[in-house]
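Hey, I'm writing a tutorial for new members on how sequence and structure tokens pair up, and I'd like a real worked example in the thread rather than a made-up one. If someone can provide the structure for the chain below, I'll link this post from the tutorial.
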Amino acid sequence: MKRGGRLCLILLVSILLLGLPPERASFWAAVRSGDAHHARREYHAALECYQRAVDLWPASAIPFIRQGRAYLALLDYSRAQDAFLDAMRRSGLTWEARLGLADAHAGLGERALAMSEWQALTGEHSAAIEAHSRLGRAYMDRGDWSAAGREFTAILDAQPVATAQAAQFARYNLGLLLSAEDPVMAVAHLESAVDGPDAKMSAAARQMFDTLYAVQATEDQTHATALLGQAFLIVGEPGLARRQFETALAMNPHYPAAHAYLGHILGQQGENGPALYHLAAAISLDRSYVMGHYFLGLYFREQGEPGRARVVFVRALALDPQNAALCVDIAQTYLAVPDYVVAEFWLHRAVELAPEDGQFHRILAQFYTDHLIQVRERGLPAAQQAVDLSPDDPLAHDALGWALYLTGNPRAAQTALQRALELDPYLPRAHYHLGVVYAAQGRWHDAQWEYTRVLDLDPGGPFAGRAEGALAEMARLSGQ
């Protein structure tokens, strides 16, 4: 029996003991099973359960709302939109369906329509906190900082009081928004967010919390402003980072770091002309500034110009000759050509510069396994060295597992890949590689499960494409 089937049976028995009619008991068992899968990010398994619920009670809106949420998680906004509309046809304009439909509109790029619906939902008691959360982030994306602050404040003022997770979200974002104008209040919000239930958000709050203390101890205001901008960039807030670097340049137009970081952000945002201007300005102001060269190299690489990127990376390495990461960047420009011989040289150079850093051994191992070059002679030893140096790195165990499979040791490969997934259950490449191992052993159901997990965790990504191909091939073979 499949894993989802076992869970569904347990739930069905539990609900039958409550005395519900069998058809309703089966319906709720399917819904609860789907919810359990969804909580584990097993979205395709969840969708199967919700579809069973639809078949058992077609008039209910509940499974359609659940389907919509699963499609949102899979970034399949068109199907999400259809699911929420199906829910509305059965239950009218419930807040759950309206909120989900607005989220689907946002995913489809219909931002004005989404924001209009979120605004309307702030008046709905049950949906208000969710709507304020989405509006706050939407305003931040637009650079409307004051409007964003009002939305997050509304969450903290909500009655009944917001959940711990919603309060952490609001305080974290208020801490971000207030960091430049009111650092004392920002520290108070961030300190509360550090203790919240979301571990990733807690870590980001700690990063900002520590940065604010460093900023307050810095006498150079231009440097302090840029330091805060760098912290915003680290926690994934390019809009706030851009504001800081623009402010730093208003204070000192000749500050190389502000030009370099602002140019990098503008390039990421597609403003290529201004990006190139600021990157060039950074290098012109200080030709020894490594980050200026590095960001310019990234810009050229992302523009599809590996040759120009390589020239700049080599200049950066000349300024910082012990920088192993720059060697990897240079190698990537050769892989884009491709020139595997020279790329291999630079990856070995990275390992020579940082022999005790497992990530560079792992990158070297991935080069051999990804391109099927000397896997037994060089790839496998590099992967084993990566694991020895970084035993808690799931990517290192994945590289070792894949190298073991490619060298004809599927049982050891399975062990290594399972260890990778113990360390990170949501690593798409490890699920894909484990699926390949299972398929090679004729364990078709296990392989299908692993490939489906890739589709759950890497929607639209490179491993999802490979998993789709593998599933299609399995379906073709089973149909013969």
